[in-house]
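Q: For a teaching session next week I want to show students how multiple molecules come together into a single three-dimensional assembly. I've collected the sequence lines for a complex. Could you give me the predicted structure tokens for the whole thing so I can convert them for display?
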Amino acid sequence: MTIRNFTLLIISVLLAATLLPAKDAGMKFTEMPSAASPLITFRVIIRAGAINDPAGKEGLNALTAEMIAQGGTKELTYTQVVDKMYPWAAGINANSDQEVTTFIGNVHRDNLDAYYKLISSLLLQPRFDPADFQRIKDMQINYLKNTLRSTNDEALRKQTLNTMIYAGHPYGKTEAGTVQGITSITLEDVKAYYAKTYTQANIWIGIAGGYPATLVETMRKDFAALPAGQPNTVTLASPPQVSGMEVTVVEKPTRAYAVSMGYPVSVTRKDKDFYPLLVAGSYFGEHRSFNGVLMNRLRGDRGLNYGDYAYVEKFVGGLGQPPFPNLNTPLRQQFFSIWLRPMPPDRTLFGIRDALFELKNLVEKGLSKEDFEQTRKFVLNYSKLWAATASRRLGYKMDSEFYGSEYYIDRIDQELKTMTVEDVNAAIKKYLNPDNIKIAVVVDEGKGQAFLSSMISNAPSPITYQSPVGQSILDQDKLIQTFTLTINKDKSVVVNAKDLFEK
Amino acid sequence: MMKTAGLTLLILLVACSGFSRPEENKIFPYKIHQTTLENGLKVIAIPFDSPGIVAYYTIVRTGSRNEVEPGKSGFAHFFEHMMFRGTERYPKDKFNAMLKSIGADNNAYTSDDQTVYHTVASAAALETMMDIESDRFMNLKYTEEDFKTESGAILGEYNKSSSNPFQTIDEKMREIAFGEHTYRHTTIGFIKDIEDMPNQYQYSLTFFDRWYRPENCVVLVVGDVQPDNVFALAKKYYSAWKHGTYKLDVPQEPPQTAEKTGTIPWKAKTLPILTIAYHGPAFSDKDIEYAAMELLSQCVFSETSDLYHNLVVDKQLVEFVQGGNEDHRDPYLFSIFSRVKDPNNIALVRDAIYAALEDTKSNPVTAERLEGIKAHLKYQYAMSLNSPDPVANSLATYIELTGDPESVNRVYAMFDRVTPQDIMSVAKKYFTPQNRTVVTLQQQEVKQ
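A: Of course. Below is the structure for the complete assembly, covering every listed component.
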């Protein structure tokens, strides 16, 4: 325990020293030309995100971005913009994250000129129509009130954990803001935020595919119309230190209980230590794969749920998304997390204990040489699949530049080829910790206090099976069902979902 | 790093003249190589310029549509899970270790009409994939204990979406709209059947014996491959697979004669969701009705439609409205969904949707609008073909529907032939009150 607390102290000091990434003066471009391709992809990043939301106006960054992506230009209404793009099957989407906001568009070369004119007008001369403002504001509030709080438990437990890990920290609000924050935003706020944030100092244009060389020069001239501006710098303090097991139980109507757990880690893709941790994360819980320990123990052996995964950096994922690391959601401070998909209520506590039991095993025993070699080989090969399209390659390249690192896929290749099992096990001991961890659980209404009490009391949580399972599993179950939970009562709460993300 | 020479071909075909390609007029720009083994297994190879990468798909033309016996809903999907439980030669752990060693992205999905097993991995591992895939399709073996354990994962899959109202709407709509056809249940199945799955071990063996047969499956390989090599490996690894005998008799749905309605009280906080469905035509690459319905859905429900402008942009009565005819082997539903901002406006929104559909019966779409829709559909498809996986996934859909990958070319050629009169004809035929089912989901109580 003492050693682990010391480790946390070191992590805390390291996090406190996190510096802002160096920013080039003026506009930044990332180009990946491929003359043979008929497709062109744009990723226009604004170096500002939810962390730039003014106090009391949480959600302003996202609302401004949507006013551009789902709005009009000075000359054309939103409807006219959509009508023009429709025959090309083109559009533009905004992805607002904590540190950056990305506008993503894809178009066929046949339609590039007209498409570029439209998206550059949207970004440079947004219409900011009051009717569009009302429509988008309603949608953003409804997302928090009627989707995140209510009809998507997987997103809810994930966002709850983020909020816990980053309580009082700039990352502590949802990317969409808060209900009260959005409610207070006016169209004038949007215009002012745009004027301050959409500047040459903050804009970063990525383009890939079969575009003509002259396009970049055209963009450089066109976007020079933006004011020079100043980088929107936000200094990040350390996330709060984790003390024991801090639990937030969220109540809402639900038939199965979803769980997230995790804590900050002080390494990102720029750091050498990130890469052994990446191998450890893949071994422990590769997303949507039977490679991971968690998936095999919780689902494969015990049928507790549909899936169990672990991540060494922010992972958003979601229906229809590829199972690969996210694009354009970079963070200067990262976190480790475990995702347990919904479990039957009477098996959830066992599932939480099982995941922590396996995490403790990982920290104490590490990977065997054989496990390491298999996982290293897997990650080396698998990572080549992540960048199958020009759009994904561009996204990873821009993220690498954000971190000040080499192209991510190449960096993985370089780091893993010289990595040893000792590197991985040292990183596990340095950065992973089963004793001090934040846990978010979504449970049925009226069941929260009893669930939290059962965690605090450390009462055994035995499991039964519909059919015989192997003796080794039963033997392990005896250890898991009484696995000691060191719940920090003072930092554990029961909340109702309707009260979350309010302000 | 993947190159895009395949897409170069695409641009040569489409440049400057929209999508006119006089020599073939095909939307799918890559050559389709196919052969059929003596046991009936069709093997398709599509070279795609993706150095070092292949997508390997096995399409089983069996989905929840095949679940004709009472109490067995959800079995096609359950069986998809069991296919990852190993064989004598490659037990589960060894199977997973082999996939891990080649860095594969490996998974599967099930729908009403198909079960698809898909892997993307190194082209150098093609023979390994052929070996382990053929082995599990021919020699799957699992214990009753494994079977019962996996049933927990199925319940978990149901649970993971249980807070999503659209899962419940799907269940309710099918149950009301269909009385006979197996489309009456969702792919994951009735919850009572899911909960009974642990007791169905013997039936699972029957299911495998019936459907996992070469004449019911297609192997599709896209990427950095030589077709001759694919066919030679397929012959080596799949020839021992025995042809099956089971004949499926799916009960056909009689015409609906009166409007049906349903309501879903929802415990959690939600905006009302209005769902309107009409029985529609089955997928067809020959019948213009199917193509006309596809274009009609764009006319009435795309973001450029008058209805969308009216309800979403101008009056802002709804968060979204969308509608379309989902591709199915047998006649399914043309479904319309809208999330309404104020419960008091549900009837207003419903009537606006009805009016938009009525309008398509008597007011022909303009030539300019129709051309815009046709261009949209073609660019949308062409732009999706950007790596081996989406190429294979796209063809898998057409293979499951007709067994023939060339269907994609016939369908898009048919889109080109759709006239305003075709659209008016299908609107008159299908959008009638007696052919309609309406399901409304509303919050049961408001807790503030």
